Amino acid sequence: MRSSRAEPIPVARTNPFNPPPDLARLREGLGGISPLAYPDGHNGWLVTGYEEARKLLADARLSNRLELQQFPVAWPARDGFYGHPTPPGMFSHMDDPQHAYFRRKLAGHFNTHTLKPLEDTIQEIITERLDRMEDMTPPLDLVSHLAWPATTQVICELLGVPYEDREEFHRLNEVTASLETSPQQGDEAMAALRAYFLELVRSKRAHPTDDLLGVLAAGDDFPEDELVGIGFLLHKAGHETTSNMFALGTLALITYRDQWERLCQEPSLIPQAVEELLRYLSILQFGVQRTAIEDIDIAGSVITAGQRVTISLPAANRDPSKFEDPDELDISRDARNHLAFGFGVHQCVGQHLARLELRIGFEGLTSRFPSLHSAVSVDELHFAADMHLYGVHRLPVMW
Amino acid sequence: MIRIIADRDICISAGNCVLAAPAIFDQSHEDGLVQVIVELVDGKECDAVYEAAEACPSGAIRLVDDGGSPTGV
Questions:
Q1: Min CA distance, A237 vs chain B (Å)?
Q2: Closest chain B residue to A114 measured between Cα atoms?
Q3: What's the half-sphere exposure (Cβ side, CA atoms, 13 Å) at A352?
Q4: For chain A, which terminal residue's Cβ has fewer other Cβ atoms within 10 angstroms, N or C?
Q5: What ipTM describes this predicted complex?
Q6: Which of A338, A357, A356, A335 is nearest to A347 (CA)?
């Protein structure tokens, strides 16, 4: 068993498109798993290797329950969240069999058949946004004019959340997703979001709608408080991630211009470009968190029961033992089996929806705005090192 | 020849198998659980089936060679 001092999770980036370089240093020096110092003073493990990450993501000896968990960096807005029991309905932080109950009921709404009719809706939404962009004079912010409104509209439509409330829940979600807001601000925003979804669920019980939350509210699989948790989770997870991927993905392509130009000429490459961008960007920048409920032997180390594990998806997705020249953005590579959506039973339930939105979004952008470019240099942009999810806060573009 | 065995108790309806091998796998319209369209494959179809088994996040897909011993995926 190798012994080395536990370090905090590396966070300093030198290139805005690459994960912190110290993640690779740890993997090269210490192997795919190394000791990790958590903010509360406890030591656990950081997983940086692809094989180790994949194995552990599928290992039932790692619990996802919130009461056992801590985040690897200080996140004051979530003080009332980590280390406390999982809120009702938040199945992403439950273990099987409880998690499986929720997953089974919900996965049917996100399967490849269910999403087909949504494809036309997504196309309409993207087309309308691009029409509006064409009528405007550049430069304009791709985040606020395309990435965010389009992805918000899609999830609102699917779930049955009123799009007209978007400014309010955008504000509240930003507060909970920021690493810099206070515990009180975080608690207040969470409470406001729960109250919002409670009212929404109640109105759907009284006046049934044929969207996802409406169908769930009309059934009796879930009591009210669980529907609130489900609604909040799917809504938040269903647009923040995709919005960030769309904006940051566009930026990566137009920065590494040969990739963008190739995509404009060969739109049939878009689906695999989406996979490569998911791998390359890995916007869950702090990875996923777990806690061992039994001892686990892996790669020469022993995770003892009770220890926390941080599985770095960005590091795993840049592991040269799995992906050749991993730090190169290459839309011609086969990036399938990246871990951007995770793995195991908690693998992102919305992954096909995300892929669909990104494919349609990039098809629209490359075909209608092939001359798209950033209006400012990359080092003038504000990247989301201050948020739970990585991305770019604003992306002024010209065409 | 490869025989495909999909365990619907383990399946989490991710649908990755359908993406990898749409001629071989489908998802139930109600609950999204895996449905094996073609149980025995050989030749070129095997590549897509190996991809599907590797991509399955829950490990619900087992591949057995025609003689009955697991192929080790």
A1: 16
A2: B29
A3: 22
A4: N
A5: 0.87
A6: A338
